[in-house]
TrEMBL record, chain A:
Protein name (Swiss-Prot/TrEMBL): Protein cornichon homolog 1
Family indicated by similarity: Belongs to the cornichon family.
Pfam families (alphabetical): Cornichon
Membrane topology: Multi-pass membrane protein
Automatic annotation (TrEMBL), chain B:
Protein name according to UniProt: Protein transport protein Sec24-like At3g07100
PANTHER family the UniProt entry points to: SEC24-RELATED PROTEIN, SECRETORY 24AB, ISOFORM A
Top-level taxonomy: Eukaryota, Viridiplantae, Streptophyta, Embryophyta, Tracheophyta
Domain Sec23/Sec24 trunk residues, every copy: 464-700
Residues of the Zinc finger Sec23/Sec24-type domain: 389-427
Domain called Sec23/Sec24 beta-sandwich: residue spans: 706-790
Any GO CC annotation of this UniProt entry: endoplasmic reticulum membrane
Biased composition range(s): Polar residues: 105-117, 149-191, 217-231
UniProt GO MF annotations: SNARE binding; zinc ion binding
Amino acid sequence: MAWELILWFIFFIINIALLALNLYQIICLSDLESDYLNPYELASRINAVVLPEFILQGVFSVLFLLKGHWFMFLLTVPITYYHTMLYMNRKHLIDVTEVFSVLSSQKKYRIIKLGFYLFFFTIVIVRIFAAGILFFNRSEFGELDIRSSVLEF
Amino acid sequence: MKPMGTENPGRPNFPARSAATPFAPASQTSMPFLSSGPVVGSEASAFRPTPPTAPQTSMAFLSSGPGVGSEASGFRPSPPARSYGPSVPPPPPSYVPPVGGSFQRFPTPQFPSTAQGPPTRGPPVGQSVLSPPMQPPVGQVQSPPVSLRPQQLSSVPMGSPPQSVNFPPSSVNVPQAPLDSSFSAPRQTLHPSFPPLESSYPAARTTLQPSFPGYPSRQSNAVLQAPSVQSPFPAHQGGYAPAPPAPSSPFLAHQGGYVPPPPVAAPLGLHSREQMQYPGSGPPIGTIQGLAEDFNSLSLGSIPGSIDPGLDSKALPRPLDGDVEPNSFAEMYPMNCNSRYLRLTTFGIPSSQSLISRWQLPLGAVVCPLAEAPDGEEVPIVNFAPTGIIRCRRCRTYVNPYVTFTDGGRKWRCNICALLNDVSGDYFAHLDASGRRIDLDQRPELTKGSVEFVAPTEYMVRPPMPPLYFFLIDVSLSAVRSGMVEIVAQTIRSCLDELPGFPRTQIGFITFDSTIHFYNMKSSLTQPQMMVVSDLDDIFVPLPDDLLVNLSESRSVVETFLDSLPSMFQDNVNLESAFGPALKAAFMVMSQLGGKLLIFQNTLPSLGVGRLRLRGDDLRVYGTDKEHALRIPEDPFYKQMAADFTKYQIGVNIYAFSDKYTDIASLGTLAKYTGGQVYYYPSFQSAIHKERLRHELARDLTRETAWEAVMRIRCGKGVRFTSYHGNFMLRSTDLLALPAVDCDKAFAMQMSLEETLLTTQTVYFQVALLYTSSSGERRIRVHTAAAPVVTDLGEMYRHADTGAIVSLFCRLAIEKTLSHKLEDARNSVQSRIVKALREYRNLYAVQHRLGGRMIYPESLKFLPLYGLALCKSTPLRGGYADAQLDERCAAGYTMMALPVKGLLKLLYPSLIRIDEYLTKGSAQVDEFKNIFKRLPLAAESLDSRGLYIYDDGFRFVIWFGRMLSPDIAMNLLGVDFAGDLTRVSLCEQDSEMSRKLMGLLKKFRESDPSYYQLCHLVRQGEQPREGFFLLTNLVEDQIGGTNGYADWILQIHRQVQQTA
């Protein structure tokens, strides 16, 4: 059960990283909007973190699958799929020449993604606590604890 | 006469008046009529005589047009009707008599008054006068007129201003108005079933009347609506004044219900009919065009097998006078900048979001900040040296004629944000009694809409750059073979003296094939030194300091280089092109200073970074979702390079020459994001295209250019520009970066409301272009314009500017082809036109019961035609086979930058018959404007005995009719006139006629120097050249699967009605 806790802790770290990357991009975009940033800088900043984010997200998703949390995996599939699509169509990077025409849609897309990540964040937190409680209190309640079956989805 | 009479009651109205008069008393009317046109008069007279109602209906149909006439006959079940068709005038008579009687009786007293009134006083008077006439009818005739009255009356006050504007058209319409009105009634009934028509006719009338009575009760409503009503009229305004009489008369005669429509509808019917007859009489078509077209026979569906479009193609509006700018606002706001700098799609800015959403057309502006001004109207230059430039503290608006000075001249109020600013001591001047500054006369920035400020150092991030020209020339086998290198070298050499910015001008060259050649042209050398770099993966620049040299210092070296360039590579057998690496090298050389990069490219880039595939034109891709991918750059390298070029103030112009696919879509990106342009010479052969390349390159090199420029357009609170369209790159949300910009570039932008409701009366726009002039001075060119805020949709439509709308449409459609299918782009154009017309129709159709008529505002009368032309333009037309992919893309890039006038000419080119002018001999070239009349762009306009010239601003096509007298051909072409025209080039022969023709072409070319029109000679029946050069460009014809003009109108009309 210690592995369980460690695993969820890894998820937690990845999730924090995803959230941070995403927030960073959103902030860059709003900076551009309010003219604190020029398009060249914006493109180089965002494009530098796009691929890391995609990879991280892929790892996040695959780890769920490997660990057998198929329901959590299913929840991450939409984002993974969308990322793959963008990458395959070569549309994942910001086009510096057309930044302003895609600005609002890019921002919206990232905010929606932020919502997803926040959702995972809450789940991961819950699971960490659950795993922690199970780990530290296992002796008391044993395998019969009803909470374990509820949380083990 | 132009439709836009605007405020001149005198001129424009006259025709109208004459027309109006006819209505009232027969005798009187006839008189005026005759004056206006003999034909009409005859018509009118004919009119009265014939009593039968049945003919009337036929008339209506016929009204659609003579040409249509035969088809119309198909419509009608009864042959007699048909017979009428040909001779339109007779039928009406039958109808009229009854009407005429009543008509004459009551109107006589009133009308005379009207007739006199309007002429003397002007439109407003005319209306007021008119209203009285109406009343008598009411008393005598029936209730219907009454209903009319309210509307018209109400309209009178409102409408008066508008009327003045459009008078001329109205005049035309007036005469017919009676006819139409009468017809219209029948028409409505007609739709259901033909035979019943006549019988029903009376019935219809009766029924109509009841409705009218209802009207009076509603009068209050009517009155309320009146404003709206007016607007329609105003649109036609011309028609308006006269219209009132027309309606009244018709009403009396038959249909009460009809009343309101008459003004609108009547004109329609009139036009079509009149035109048929008029041609003889002479009034130009332009005047005839009214608000709407008569579509009475549109209900074709009920008659199986009939294909009668029911509309006279001759009656359709055509922009044969070229671009007509609405100028009423120049009078309303005399301090606005000239419309060549800024044109709004409508000069009535909507006051609310809901109005915007109902105004289905783009709301925005087209800006051409450096447009060439005719002599005497140059933009004044103002130097605020001691004071610094006067700007609003908050919104950074530049001082302009619309700011107001208060507090004895110590403060000024910003017209855009209403902030009170202090006037600095140096700029202070006392105010006179009326609140004007006493030094107003010496302050062009306070009296002129366009001024140029000399910018102090705060406006520079670095010392002003010198004009810099850098040439990147392809010297591969095909480039040398085609003669391109030679012509380019010669042209550049001949332009060295005229390059702007002497003595600071800098110049440099790189040539490339599979390697890159740099040239050291240091002034201390006698011969240029060539360095070859063949490592394409890791480009480096040898001697980075001596590749760009000062032209005046290194003049002799540069000349030596240009003289030897063609011979240096004449034996080059290299087929490859290391374009990408060469581009990078050029970038490295230029990035210190910026400037203008001219790329001469002949071979598809095949080596190094940025190489392109022969992705070609794959037939199978068309119609699929991947179609658009052909039109966007294949390799992100080009976009990246374009962005970098802009960042370092480098503007790129592309000259592409290949006879094979060169992927203009990718190359053009470089020009698109750097404010440049694409010149495309497919299959360049120096023998044929020499002149064109020479002229266009010379113009590119010598025209006044603004360097390292940025442009911003500011506007009043509550309004915001949201999207920009054209060749530039956005540096921030509203800042256009333009590394090199000149007078041939225009930019379009769309705006939206930030607030749901605008509370101000006026919205101000200010375009500011900050640039470095060739002389090395930093300057700000400021254009200011004001536009009123309106609360009425009709008003917006009335003040619409077709040219600006088409320009925006064009840019939006071309942008759409980059992400959608061509089909989708065309459909979006069509659907927006349909939506706009439907909205307009909804404004007026219900209260006017327009039934089957198509109505549109006077200001937008050419919109459908331009829409059609746009759908048939090179970037949007057809599918795979209709245009080469490269041509499509090149035309797309060109049209994205064209100023309004050039674009309209390209969309609806002029077609002029010149053989008479050539043979007549006596006419002065100077008055050729009067001699040459632009013809409709249809095959019907071409007479096989004639000689025609087709001019779209980019090329001439001279069309030799099959039966053209051989004398003319021989005089123009020399002895081999019967030979193959592809090989004959037009040059001056030793004959008067030939000299005249060349003089003519010269004259045409001078009217638009931004491009050189190459002359193509085509003989009638010589396929496929004739088709390629001329026939596919006759936009009014049915070509391939596309609509002709009449069908297009019909289709639009159906769609407008379908979902109305």
